[in-house]
Prior knowledge:
Blueprint: E1 2-4, H1 7-17, E2 26-28, H2 35-42, E3 47-51, H3 56-68, E4 73-76, H4 87-95
Parallel strand pairs: 1-2, 1-3, 3-4
Amino acid sequence: MLVFEGFMDFLSYLTIKEHPAFSLNVVVLNSVANLDKAIPFLQCNNNIHLFLDRDEAGRTATAEIVSLCPQSEVIDHSGLYLGYKDVNDYLRAKTRPRHVPAMRRAPGKPGPKVGGK
């Protein structure tokens, strides 16, 4: 069972994993405010892998899942994106192109022609 706080986090996970195992159940909360609705489903799983935001709400939700799913092994994967808010921010930072300096014309040389013949 994989649990994500937002859909973009789930899509980012799929991008990072390249060939994810689709035999797993996935819950996308869209907000930790929806956790209460997901608890009955989570309680039916032996293993719960959490990819929640690295903020107070995410930590509170993690503690709540651990408390309400005592028969499950709950694994918090937020350490994988340490230094980032969530999986999506981690992916965006890792795939952002490096800074490419602006092209400058050589001194004394005319710039490229724009328009005209």
